[in-house]
């Protein structure tokens, strides 16, 4: 084994980029709530951007590593510690066999992603390594991590010698008022003019129910023209559903693939991480933008991620590692030799 | 083709709606557009999700932009002709009606004012159509177009109805893959597994398929269940011309 869970934290799950192609069978897409932080964590350790990683929620786990490796933690600042020493988050770190990785507490945000160079060994279901909590399949044993779980690295990848200078600038809005951009629809025509104005001007607070399925919002009631039911249609990650009580619910990564309530708007992809990093009490405002602008922003973000990935490829030299067993005066010693290889 | 509405669903999906009601006709248009796209896959499209009268197309905007996808789908719809081909795929689902696993068979029969045997006859003699799968993985919503039951959803949902249960109201029948709450009536149980994660495609059903429910006895139930649990049972499946 390579990683032993000494304490699981509040909710730590294995997620890869998600499960696609099975929504027509009633399967949600799952995957990371904050896709940006998730991908950046993988990029930092030189993994495929879609590789299985840990999604850590508010209170982090304590993990014992039994193998040398490189890790990165990106997203919420949950107070990352290595052997009880505070270290930088949004950065990569060298881990030696016997090291403990833990978190002392949430400073800002809600979810962080821990990627291990080489990825975590997970048997895929429906081409995905993501944990499908409600269905109890996928990820590690179909459930969040528990004490004494043992996980293995997917494959041993050469180390690199610049792990200590690999950092990313990951920012999310830390003020308690976030502006969330949306595209109206698909059922925006089912609301009164006043209802739409309420939605686009009033603040909405994250309620006490916020999880991987959805975020219930508190605030002014959004008025429908008539009833809130529709002929059930497809749900997407980021859709804002308004049932009969007029209180919006944001559909998140584990939401049902089909739903029967009006959806007033859909959050643009690059703003979904802002929701994923929000928790009870945070306030948001919705701002309407058009599809063209939203897709420009999406393309720019992809380009930004591609650029960082390219840059990371260039700066590092890989390290070759050799382990020797030496006997001196009848005592056996294990010696690890690391050598930087110029490419 | 008339009565088509395009809807923007965020920056990564587009929804095409046919008509304004749940009908076999509208759903066939959904299925036909789905088939056309499946046969002429558009680069950048991630997946298609059909529901009662709409199809959602998920796509990557960095590969294909909204307007380009809209134009392509619009062209496909322009060329789409509803064929008279009534060939339908039918799957047989064995059911053990009544008893411990179908405790409310008598309730539904009573509401209908007929015997349990007559109720089973209604349920097994008409084909049921799968409009969509949802609620949980592999969970189908099936409907028959004749002889609806005179019973509506009950006000208080029952908790923990076991997987394999057959539940009904009105003209609708659902097959429950995993334990869940329901306000519908449990009239029987199927020995087959509709969601089996050991398989590459874990799902027995798909939208657009017709289901024929077949009554079996306890002995048959036990034998099929044994095979299904071992992962070797195959449901009878065939194509038929429907009138």
Write the layout of secondary structure elements.
The complex is a heterodimer of chains A (343) and B (243).
Chain A: E1 3-7, E2 11-15, H1 35-44, E3 53-57, E4 62-65, E5 69-77, E6 80-82, E7 85-86, E8 91-95, E9 100-103, E10 108-116, E11 150-151, E12 159-160, E13 177-184, H2 193-201, E14 204-210, E15 214-218, E16 229-234, E17 239-241, E18 249-251, E19 258-261, E20 263-267, H3 272-276, E21 283-288, H4 291-315, E22 318-328, E23 331-341
Parallel strand pairs in A: 13-21
Antiparallel strand pairs in A: 1-4, 1-11, 2-3, 3-10, 4-9, 5-8, 5-10, 6-7, 6-9, 12-22, 13-20, 14-15, 14-21, 15-18, 16-19, 17-18, 17-20, 22-23
Chain B: E1 4-8, E2 13-18, H1 24-39, E3 45-50, E4 54-59, H2 66-79, E5 87-97, H3 105-112, H4 116-125, E6 128-133, E7 140-143, E8 158-161, E9 165-169, E10 172-175, E11 180-182, E12 185-189, E13 210-215, H5 218-230, E14 237-241
Parallel strand pairs in B: 5-13
Antiparallel strand pairs in B: 1-2, 2-4, 3-4, 5-12, 5-14, 6-7, 6-13, 7-10, 8-11, 9-10, 9-12
Structural notes for this entry:
The complex is a heterodimer of chains A (343) and B (243). Chain A is mostly beta strands and 343 residues long. Chain A is built from four helices and 23 strands. Chain A has helices spanning 35-44, 193-201, 272-276, 291-315; strands at residues 3-7, 11-15, 53-57, 62-65, 69-77, 80-82, 85-86, 91-95, 100-103, 108-116, 150-151, 159-160, 177-184, 204-210, 214-218, 229-234, 239-241, 249-251, 258-261, 263-267, 283-288, 318-328, 331-341. In chain A, helix 1 (35-44) runs parallel beside helix 4 (291-315). Chain B has 243 residues and is of the alpha+beta class. Chain B contains five helices and 14 strands. Chain B has a seven-stranded mixed barrel. A four-stranded antiparallel β-sheet of chain B has the order 1-2-4-3, with helices on one face. In chain B, strand 1 (4-8) and strand 2 (13-18) form a beta hairpin. The two termini of chain B are 23 Å apart. The model of chain B has no long low-confidence stretch (mean pLDDT 94). Classes of the chains: A mainly beta (343), B alpha+beta (243).
């Amino acid at each position: 084994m390579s990683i032993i869970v000494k304490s699981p934290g509040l909710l730590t799950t294995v997620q890869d980029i998600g499960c696609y192609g099975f929504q027509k069978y009633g399967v949600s897409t799952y995957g990371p709530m904050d896709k940006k932080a998730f991908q950046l964590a993988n990029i930092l350790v030189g993994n495929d951007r879609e590789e299985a990683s840990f999604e850590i929620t508010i209170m982090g786990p304590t993990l014992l590593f039994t193998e040398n490796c490189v890790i990165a933690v990106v997203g919420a600042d949950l107070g990352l510690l290595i052997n009880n020493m505070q270290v930088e988050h949004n950065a990569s770190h060298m881990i030696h066999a016997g090291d403990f990785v833990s978190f002392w507490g949430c400073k800002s945000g809600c979810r962080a992603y821990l990627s291990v160079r080489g990825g975590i060994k997970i048997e895929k279901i429906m081409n995905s390594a993501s944990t499908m909590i409600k269905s109890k399949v996928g990820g590690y044993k179909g459930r969040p991590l528990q004490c004494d779980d043992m996980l293995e690295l997917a494959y041993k990848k050469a180390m690199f010698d610049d792990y200590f200078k690999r950092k990313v600038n990951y920012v999310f809005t830390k003020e308690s008022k976030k502006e969330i951009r949306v595209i109206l629809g698909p059922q925006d025509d089912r609301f009164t003019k006043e209802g739409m104005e309420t939605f686009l001007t009033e603040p909405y607070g994250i309620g006490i129910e916020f999880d991987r399925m959805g975020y219930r919002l508190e605030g002014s009631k959004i008025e429908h023209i008539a009833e809130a039911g529709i002929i059930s249609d497809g749900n997407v990650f980021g859709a804002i559903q308004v049932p009969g009580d007029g209180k919006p619910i944001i559909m998140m990564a584990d939401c049902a693939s089909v739903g029967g309530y009006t959806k007033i708007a859909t959050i643009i992809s690059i703003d979904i991480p802002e929701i994923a990093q929000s928790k009870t009490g945070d306030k948001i405002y919705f701002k309407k933008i058009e599809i063209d602008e939203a897709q420009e922003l999406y393309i720019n973000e992809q380009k930004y991620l591609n650029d960082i990935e390219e840059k990371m490829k260039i700066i590092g030299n890989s390290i070759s590692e050799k382990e020797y067993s030496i006997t001196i005066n009848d005592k056996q010693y294990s010696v690890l030799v690391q050598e930087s290889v110029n490419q | 083709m008339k009565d088509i509405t395009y809807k923007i669903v965020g920056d990564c999906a587009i929804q095409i709606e046919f008509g304004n009601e749940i009908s076999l006709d509208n759903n066939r248009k959904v299925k036909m557009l789905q088939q056309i796209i499946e046969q002429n896959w558009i680069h950048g499209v991630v997946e298609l999700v059909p529901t009662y009268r709409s199809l959602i197309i998920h796509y990557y905007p960095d590969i294909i932009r909204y307007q380009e996808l809209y134009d392509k789908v619009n062209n496909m719809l322009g060329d789409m002709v509803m064929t008279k081909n009534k060939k339908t795929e039918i799957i047989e689902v064995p059911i053990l009606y009544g008893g411990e696993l179908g405790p409310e068979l008598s309730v539904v029969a009573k509401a209908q004012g007929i015997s349990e045997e007559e109720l089973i006859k209604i349920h097994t003699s008409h084909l049921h159509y799968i409009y969509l799968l949802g609620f949980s993985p592999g969970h189908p919503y099936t409907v028959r177009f004749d002889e609806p039951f005179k019973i509506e959803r009950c006000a208080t949902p029952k908790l923990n109805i076991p997987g394999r249960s057959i539940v009904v109201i009105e003209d609708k029948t659902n097959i429950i893959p995993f334990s869940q709450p329901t306000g519908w009536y449990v009239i029987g149980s199927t020995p087959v597994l509709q969601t089996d994660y050991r398989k590459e495609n874990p799902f027995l059903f798909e939208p657009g398929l017709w289901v024929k429910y077949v009554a079996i006895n306890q002995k048959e139930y036990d034998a099929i269940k044994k095979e299904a649990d071992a992962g070797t049972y195959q449901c009878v499946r065939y194509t038929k011309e429907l009138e």
